[in-house]
Amino acid sequence: MLIDKIVRAVALYCGGAVLAIMMMVIIVDVTGRYVFNTPLDGSLDLSIVLLVLAVSCSIGYGGRTGAHVTADMVTTVVGPQFEWVSGLCIKTLAAGITAIWSWRLFVTGTTAGRLGESTQLLNIPFEPIYKALSVGVGLYAAVLIVEVFVLARRGQVPLLIDESRAMGSPE
Asked: How many whole angstroms from its chain centre is CA 161?
C-alpha cells in the first residue's frame, strides 16, 4: 500500500535524521559537560524540540506496525463479528479524533507563530514544530482511514512488518 511506503519513509529517513542530530547534540553536551566543564548552551531546548520531531515522524509508522497500545479483552469473549464491527467503529472514531487533533495542532502552530512563541534559551520558534507534529498526526489519521477501508473490505487489517522486529526472528 502507498500509505505503508510513506510512513516507512518518513519514519526511516526523517525520523532517523532527527534521531542522529539529537544523538550528536547529546554527545556534544555530555562531552562538553563532563570532559571540558562547558556544557552546550540550549541543549535542553534542542533536545526537546528534536524529541517532538522524532515522535511526529514515527506516529504513523507505529500505528501501521501495531506498536501502539491496544486492549482487546472484550473481543476474545464476544466473537469475530463483534470484533469486526467494533474495529470499524473504533478506527473511524480514532481517525476523526486524530484528524481534528492534526487540524488543531496546525492552527495552534499558526497562532504560536503570530504571537512569536519560542523556546526560552535558543528562541526556536514553536510554529514549525507544531506544524511538523500536525503533519505526523495527520499521517496517522490517514493510516487509520486506510485501515478502516481495508477492514471493511477484507475483514482484517494486515500489519506492516516492522523491520526492527523481523531482523532477528527465525521466521
From this structure: 17
Q: 42 in helix, strand or coil?
A: coil
Distances (CA, A) of 73 to 76, 87, 134: 6, 13, 31
Residue 75 forms beta bridges with which residues? none
* Structure-block grid coordinates of residue 162: 516492522
Q: How far apart are CA 18 and CA 13, in angstroms?
A: 9
CB neighbour list of residue 11: distance below 8 Å, 6 or more residues apart: 57, 58, 60, 61
Report pLDDT digits (tens) over 69-103: 766 666 667 777 877 888 889 899 999 999 999 99
Grid cell at residue 63? 500505528
- Overall size of the chain counted in residues: 171
More confident residue, 71 or 165: 71
